[in-house]
UniProtKB/TrEMBL annotation:
<dbReference type="InterPro" id="IPR016181">
    <property type="entry name" value="Acyl_CoA_acyltransferase"/>
</dbReference>
<dbReference type="Pfam" id="PF00583">
    <property type="entry name" value="Acetyltransf_1"/>
</dbReference>
<feature type="domain" description="N-acetyltransferase">
    <location>
        <begin position="8"/>
        <end position="162"/>
    </location>
</feature>
<protein>
    <submittedName>
        <fullName>GNAT family N-acetyltransferase</fullName>
    </submittedName>
</protein>
<dbReference type="InterPro" id="IPR000182">
    <property type="entry name" value="GNAT_dom"/>
</dbReference>
<dbReference type="GO" id="GO:0016747">
    <property type="term" value="F:acyltransferase activity, transferring groups other than amino-acyl groups"/>
</dbReference>
């Protein structure tokens, strides 16, 4: 379902937005989605308090139209690696694509990063052929510089200060070492 955009409002996620965001816009589609949504909302609250997660929600004429998540790079559970940056981990405005909602959410994320004293913002975008999620071309249009590429994933960066290093993808030092005739179990602890 697409609808014509006339008035866009961007705000911090509020209680009445949680199901829309927690269900990734699939409000009451299935019992399974509803159950996942409950768990995700609990997770949002933990990550907000413990890790600095921020979620912005877009409303068009009072109706939910999209959302964006961002974290301080130092606490982001999915990487990338860097310092003094915010990371956008999820942007969804598919139902209003091409009508300025994604751009408004990105601008709100940049404002949040500046408000928190960050020196830049980054995002992992993808070069998909047939998928809408986190498209690399959109981030290029928003003025983000591609700083690293790994297969179809690209790390994009926008700096607000000249004294900031670009982020980078996490590179694992782990190397699997098989032992003939044995089952190898590698444990990872933090």
């Amino acid at each position: 379902m697409r609808f014509k955009v006339s008035k866009i409002e961007i705000r911090d996620m509020q209680t009445e937005d949680e199901v829309f965001v927690g269900s990734c816009t699939h409000v009451n589609e299935t019992d399974e989605w509803n159950e996942v949504c409950k768990r995700r909302i609990e997770w949002f609250h933990r990550m907000y308090d413990e890790k600095g997660l921020r979620i912005k929600v877009a409303l068009v004429d009072g109706k939910h139209a999209g959302f964006i998540y961002l974290y301080p790079i130092e606490t982001c559970p999915w990487g990338p690696v860097g310092k003094d940056l915010m990371v956008i981990t999820c942007l969804d405005a598919e139902k209003v694509k091409g009508q300025g909602v994604g751009k408004a959410l990105m601008q709100a994320a940049e404002e949040e990063a500046k408000k928190q004293g960050k020196k830049g913002i980054c995002v992992v975008g993808f070069y998909w052929e047939d998928m809408w999620f986190m498209p690399a071309e959109f981030f290029k249009k928003m003025g983000y510089e591609e700083v690293q590429r790994k297969d179809n994933a690209a790390l994009f960066f926008k700096k607000f200060s000249d004294d900031i290093q670009p982020p980078r993808f996490y590179e694992s030092a782990y190397e699997y070492k098989p032992i003939p005739g044995k089952v190898v179990v590698d444990l990872f602890c933090t």
